[in-house]
Amino acid sequence: MVDPDSLSDGELLSAFQQGNDRAFAALYQRRHLEIYRYILRYMQGDEAAASDIFQDTFIKIHEHAHTIRDGNNVRSWIYSIARNNSLNALKRMRRQVRLTENHDDLEDADTLPPDAKMQRDVLYQKLDEAIGLLPENQREAVLLREFEGLSYAEIATATETNVGIIRQRLWRAKQSLRSMLAPFFEDGNDPGKEEEDHG
């Protein structure tokens, strides 16, 4: 039997379309963690809502797998379902909650001095808050690009737009983030400045 790990997302979905349930299980194992992480960030840390959306997302993927013909766009298609479910949930909730997920892929906190760790944690908190204040289309572009690592083309497919618009949204988002975070760096949070003040 062919090792599922050697198959692309498109090949796994194709095998599932032909009745191979193990292929869908393999696709789930490959993508479920990143999809849940994306939904959790999109919902700004609301774990209960993210869990419900995640389950609904994979139910829809299972139910609509037969509609996919282009095996090259399976990952983008999965993200588009997760995105639409998250958007619909936000509309129903009519509120937004703060992003609280940890930045697991960043520098190990144990290697930092206490002052540096505190400063870093404050910066992450300010960054999360700033991302949450971005317009919806800019926020999702940042999440998909900077947190999930999707290409511009994959983001364009997932959001049903084009690469030019995605580039524009990311540029505007970064300009807004710089503006929102500027006071943090101007209020004496530069370690070098602090050393100069005490010199």
Textual characterization of the structure:
The termini are far apart. This protein is elongated. It is built from nine helices and no strands. Helix 7 packs across helix 8. 70% of the residues lie in helices and 0% in strands. It has 199 residues and is mostly helical. The model is unreliable at 95-109 and 190-199 (pLDDT under 50). It folds into two domains: 1-100, Rna Polymerase Sigma Factor, Chain: A (Orthogonal Bundle), CATH 1.10.1740.10; 102-199, Orthogonal Bundle (Arc Repressor Mutant, subunit A).
What is the CA-CA span between the terminal residues?
A: 69 Å
Number-wise, the strands total 0
User: What is the H/E string?
Assistant: HHHHHHHHH
Overall tally of structural domains: 2
By CATH, the architecture of the largest domain is named Orthogonal Bundle
C-alpha geometry: elongated
CATH fold-level assignment of the largest domain: Rna Polymerase Sigma Factor, Chain: A
Could you describe the largest sheet, including whether it forms a barrel?
A: none
| Number of helical regions | 9
Helix content: over 70%
- What's the name of the CATH homologous superfamily of the largest domain? RNA polymerase sigma factor, region 2, helix turn helix motif
Classified by CATH, the class of the largest domain is: Mainly Alpha
Query: Mean pLDDT score, rounded?
Result: 80
Residue fraction in strands: under 5%
What is the CA-based Rg, rounded? 20 Å
Low-confidence stretches: 95-109, 190-199
The computed structural class is: mainly alpha
